[in-house]
Amino acid sequence: MATYLLRKPDKMAKPKRLGNSPNGMVIVSLTIALFLIGLCGLLTLNARKLTGLVKQNVEIQVYLENGLTSAKLDSIFKQVAKNDFVLVENNSPQINFTSKEVAARDFIKESGEDFRKLLGNNNPLHDLYSVKVKEEYFSEKNLKNIKNQLEKISGVHEVGYVENFVDEVNRNISKIYMVLSVFVGLLLFIIIILVNNTIKLSLYSQRMLIRSMQLVGATNGFIRKPFVIKGAIQGLISGFIACALLFASQQFAVYKVAELAVLQEPVKMLMLTGVVLILGLLIGVVSTFQSVDRYLRLSLDDLH
């Protein structure tokens, strides 16, 4: 007697939904891309902050003539403080007075040589005002003009600052910004190509569904819509993850090197995260739009 084996009918495969393309590969690729771009932006912000701190700590030394009265010292202070180039913090001009006695003690402490053994009570140093200059005046030309202007004040013996240091800092800053700009530009170009190709691959499995929708009369806009929405969501998710990684990297760096805390600027960091999110959204939408548009234009033979 023949025995018949009965097989259970296979469950009907779940139909694919329009726009249901793989998520993981796109999100990972876009997250890495946005994190690298954000990291370059963070390095640029820190470099600008560090540059500002360096510029603000460059001081002009105004050496005073000997034997000046307190009234004359106050007069010189007021004449220096009224200039626009003087840095003002908390409504107070950043001008510090150092007497020649204090300057002598500091010199002996730093150099280890006591000139008083040779000169006796004769102190060759001068009282001085240390003047901090605003960042916009941080150039060799401006500092020379400031030096000439201050030396015209009655009671001023000489004005000095670290020459050549200013131009060297400015040259190095320009080189750093140029290198970072070129690197970010190349990185952005490569990333857009890679992400675009990744999205194209993720949409490959849906190419026949796209053609089927065209055959039943669906418009290109109707077909694009779910894919573009999906791309926007993927871009935002990648942006949020990249921002979280940036914040974690910044906090880890501060934890390891506490001095880096002075470089943190919460407002600019918030602006940077906004740029990363917008960039993620734009890359996700534009790349998805271009990839879907490519499949919409392909002939039936090219789809196989």
From TrEMBL:
Domain FtsX extracellular: 58-159
Cell location: Cell membrane
Record's GO cellular component terms: plasma membrane
Signal peptide (UniProt feature, chain positions): none
Transmembrane segments: 24-45, 176-195, 227-248, 269-289
Keywords for the protein's UniProt record, in alphabetical order: Cell cycle, Cell division, Cell membrane, Membrane, Transmembrane, Transmembrane helix
Membrane topology: Multi-pass membrane protein
GO biological process terms held by the UniProt record: cell division
Domain ABC3 transporter permease C-terminal: 182-290
Major localization listed first in the record, in broad terms: membrane
PANTHER family listed in its UniProt record: CELL DIVISION PROTEIN FTSX
Family, as annotated: Belongs to the ABC-4 integral membrane protein family. FtsX subfamily.
Protein name: Cell division protein FtsX
